[in-house]
Write a structure and sequence with these properties.
This protein is of the alpha+beta class and 116 residues long. It is built from two helices and four strands, in the order ααββββ. It starts with 5 loop residues before the first helix and ends in a 13-residue tail after the last strand.
Length: 116
């Protein structure tokens, strides 16, 4: 159909989340070595406009610790460039909210130690 599949969005958000951690000085693999794993508990996505396969995108990620074991993330996905058709660039076309939980090796909730 020429449009991005809805299942792709979750992967883009995960990549943005990992890069946001890295930009903040934390590598996810280091968290895993310390026995902390971040798992997705809830993801709500609002699709405002379609994305085409060759669009150049930007994902803006905001994070906040919402308790000892929970992180909340918001995502704004914007089209920066589209080939061919005219499209207003920089406008939020997708908005998402994710709730994540820190668990230990045993899969049980575990308090985070300063990761943000």
């Amino acid at each position: 159909m020429g449009y991005a599949h809805h299942g792709s969005y979750a992967a883009w958000f995960e990549e943005a989340r990992t890069e946001a951690l890295r930009a903040g000085g934390t590598r996810y693999e280091e968290m895993e070595r310390r026995g902390m794993f971040i798992v997705l508990a809830e993801l709500n996505i609002r699709y405002r406009a379609p994305i085409r396969y060759d669009d150049l995108l930007e994902v803006r990620t905001t994070s906040r610790q919402a308790g000892a074991v929970r992180l909340d993330h918001t995502y704004e996905l914007r089209i920066l460039e589209r080939s061919g058709d005219a499209v207003e660039t920089g406008v939020v076309v997708t908005h998402a909210v994710a709730k994540l939980v820190c668990v230990g090796d045993d899969g049980r909730p575990r308090a985070m130690t300063s990761i943000l």
